[in-house]
Amino acid sequence: MLSSALRRCSTRVMVRAGGAVTSRRLESQSSAFRIHPSVEQAVAEGQAVVALESTIITHGMPYPQNISMATQVEEIVRANGSVPATVGILEGKVHIGLCEEEIKFLATCKDCVKVSRRDFPYVLSQGLSGGSTVSGTMVAAHHAGIPIFVTGGIGGVHRHGENSMDISADLTELGRTPVAVISAGVKSILDIGRTLEYLETQGVCVSTFGDSRDFPAFFTPRSGFKAPYHVRNEEEAAKLIASSLELRLDSGVLISVPIPSEYAASGQMIEEAIRQALEEVRVQGIVGKEVTPFLLRRVNEITGGKSLNSNIALIKNNAKVGSRIAVALSKIRKTKGGGRKEPRYRERSEEKTSDSGPVVIGGINVDFIAKATQDKMEFGGQTNPGQVHQSFGGVGRNLADCMSRLGVRPLFISAVGQDDLSDSVFRFCSHMDMSGVAHLKAHNTATYCAVISGSGELSLGLGDMEIHQQITEKHVSQFADRLSRAPLLCIDGNVPVSTIQYVCETARQSAVPVCYEPTDIDKASKPFTSNSWTALTYISPNLRELVSINRTLGYVEDIDIPCKLEDIVDTAIGLSLPLLENIHCVIVTLGAHGILLCGHRRDRTVSLRAKDKVSRDDLCAAHYPAAPIPPEEIINVSGAGDSLMAGLLTGVLAEYDTDTCVRMGLLAARLSLRSRGPISQLISPISVSLQQVVEEKWPTPRVWSISPSNGKTFLRTRH
After folding, report:
1. Read out DSSP for 106-173?
2. Local structure of 470: helix, strand or coil
3. How far, in Å, CA of 356 to CA of 121, rounded?
């Protein structure tokens, strides 16, 4: 069994980035798949990613050559500009991208099985571990949105296969899975001529790499057969693959790279060893998927280790060539806008992306998230063990990101620098309307570093946010017409006070609802330093931010933050009451305790519709417990509040009832709690939908009638 330490190096995030958010995609997000964070992020950003198989670790080479080879190949992939994604099956889970401990586990495992397409159901249902074959790796790579897979050599039609019908599943997989396979041709132990014929029947585009159409034979650069086509370099290979993907043929491409001549084994020596090994297979009655490992092992023994040396050399060469092809393909797809495709659900929501859609104004950051392995951390110069990864945040960006994933796609107004970080921002946010983001010289894109405890709580944050001051009234006023026609404006506390005042005045004049997200304690009071706040429709502070707002308005001087839920609710209601003179609804986020709405009554609950006719004297509060989630599943809390508000506001724009709006927010928040980035890439109109709201078993909300004189009076509990 895997150790607990090994389990921790696997991610809970399952996503097929760049793919379509359809029912098929949601099915693929089952607990069967685990995508490593570095792979998930690289695919989402349209970076070059290379899939690698693991049967070469479990069955292809002896220990310790297998583990050193696997590590070296990943290093070669990185050195040539790509992100490695080794695929392996560990205790019934398909891992796409392995950490060091997982590679070592597969390299030393005594009972690993070879896992092809046909084997997945049984292996996963039994909780077994194994190495992915070419076929199995192609399935996993396609699931994760990885278009290129590097291997040593593919399987094919076995010698005398016309009688035995022993044909590798690699060939049929190439005929039905759109992944490009970079290999040293077909293993020389096979019938190469019949293999090429079979690939033609399957509709697979086969090309050699280099100046010759001579098809390679694994250990040797020439097999005596010709490939249909050849590409001379990485750029031509990438164009070929890009063309195949663009045509959506649902079949793969085979790029055959000849082994470098200095590492090639003698063709005659290899052929004699193969014939001897084949005879041993016949005599010993070896059949099925045990044939290839036996043949490769015996050929290596017969050749005195020369075939193994050649095998390692060709794999390393393929990794170098394949990684460079992946880089060239990434550039092509980014140029064509295909590095990260729009989810298909956007096609059904096009009417919501018109010039009269919502507008979000706020900060955008490149986040560096450091999550400690243990809950208790040592401060004072010590190094705490953990994991660090890059993601994209900023409250405004988070809101716009989540709403876009839910099909609303607001105009996002912000500012970034003209630097490398801004390029990655635009790639990652390609699903958003970024036409309002200024690209400024002599400024740095905002960066933020969060240190998160082992339990997922934010312990420390550091930020370089100076560029947020460039989200000026002058810049925002360029979009004045959009602001005045929007169904909703959202603004966060990162922007300057003058910009907040301008947005509030525009909203007041055009009768547009506006939501203010305080961001943090220091920025919470920005609208409340003038009468701008009277134009706000919604605010979404936490309890400490709510105290800061009241202090700015002179309603309180200082207050102790309570610990018990009942006291927290009483305090939040008391602090919200004076704000309801002008604000339609105060939405107090309570973290693990859920969310509290304070506002005007409608249908025995709090109204979220700004156009509702409400009585200023008829106020109520509603507390909704958080959607249940096991503590061990919480990965990151930094974007949960933003996801909650984005889901809630999406429901408001759709004119859903209050319960539905809140629960959409809670569903989105729960998904983001399980995500390494602030906003989960699993959020979609399907994962956060009316059906999901109805099917979920929700804790019972409590609703009270409230007034400054009488405090709160129980109004309802819904079962």
Report:
1. HHH-SS-EEE-GGGHHHHHHTT--EEE-HHHHHHHHHHHT--EEE-S-B--BBTTHHHH--B-HHHHH
2. helix
3. 48
- 199-230 tens-digit pLDDT: 999 999 999 999 899 999 877 888 889 999 99
Cis peptide preceding 64, ω within 30 of 0: yes
Query: Taking a C-beta distance cutoff of 8 angstroms, is the pair 294, 13 a contact?
Result: no
pLDDT (0 to 100) of residue 166: 72
Q: Residues 187, 192, 196, 199: what is their CA dihedral angle, to the nearest 10 degrees?
A: -50
The domains of the chain, with CATH numbers, are 4-8+23-335 (3.40.1790.10), 355-471 (3.40.1190.20)
Write out the two tokens for 428. Answer: 């990652």
pLDDT at 111: 87
Quote the DSSP letter at residue 176. Answer: T
pLDDT at 122: 95
**Mean of pLDDT over the chain:** 85
The b/e string for 577-605 (b: 16+ C-beta within 10 A; e otherwise) is bbbbeebbbbbbbbeebbbbbbbbbbeeb
pLDDT at 15: 33
In the predicted structure, residue 236 carries a pLDDT above the cut 80: yes
In this structure, are strands 180-183 and 148-150 parallel, antiparallel, or unpaired? parallel
Which residue numbers are catalytic? 53, 187
Nearest-5° Cα angle at 421, 383 to 674: 60
Other CB atoms within 10 Å distance of the CB of residue 16: 24
Write the CA distances from 78 to 71, 209, 371, 649, integer angstroms.
11, 21, 24, 42
Confidence check: pLDDT of 274 > 80: no
Burial of 337 (0-12, 13-18, 19+ CB in 10 A): exposed
Tokens, residue 66: 């297998």
DSSP 56: I
If you ran DSSP here, which 8-state letter would residue 10 be given?
A: S
Residues making up the chain, counted from first to last:
719
